[in-house]
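Here is a typical sample entry:
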Amino acid sequence: MTIVWDQLIVENILLAGIIVGSIYLEQWGHRRSQITEEKESRRRIIMYLTDDLQKRLDFIDETHLYSDFKPFFTDMWDAIILAGKHALLPFELFQSLQRTYSWMKYYNSELDSSSDKVLDEKVLRELLDDVRKSINRSLKKLNETKEFKNSMQDHQIAKPTIDITSNNIANRIIKSS
C-alpha cells in the first residue's frame, strides 16, 4: 500500500480551502445580518426621535396656550443612551439631540426648584423658547442627515402648513366639483 503523496496533499489543500471558505462565508453572512439589524435599529430610533421632538413642540405650544407648566419626560432618550444605541447615530446628530434633551432636563430642574415658591412664568417661558429653538435645530439636523433621508420619506418631519384663505377654499371646491 503505497501512499500517493501528491493526491493526499491536493485533497488536504482542497479540504482546507473548503473549511476556510465556509468559515469566511459564515462570518460574512453574520456581519451582513448585523449591518441590516443596525440599519433597521437606526431607522427606528430616528423615527422615534423625530416623532418625540414633534410631540415636544406640540407640548410647548399647549404650555404657552394654557400656562400649564409641566415637566418633559425624557425617559426614552435616557433608555437610548443606557442601551448604547446612541452609537448608531452620526456624532453631529447625537450631539444636537443631547443638547436638546439637556435643555428639556434643565427646564425640568427649574420647574422642580420653583415648585416650593411661586412660579416665575417669564423665566419658564424663556426656557421653553430655548427648548423650542433647540428642538428645531435638532429637527433640522435630522432633515440634513443624508443617510436617513431615504428612510424618512414616509415619515414627515416638518409640520404641514394649511392655507385657509377664502380664495384657496373656493378653488378647492371648484376643482372637486
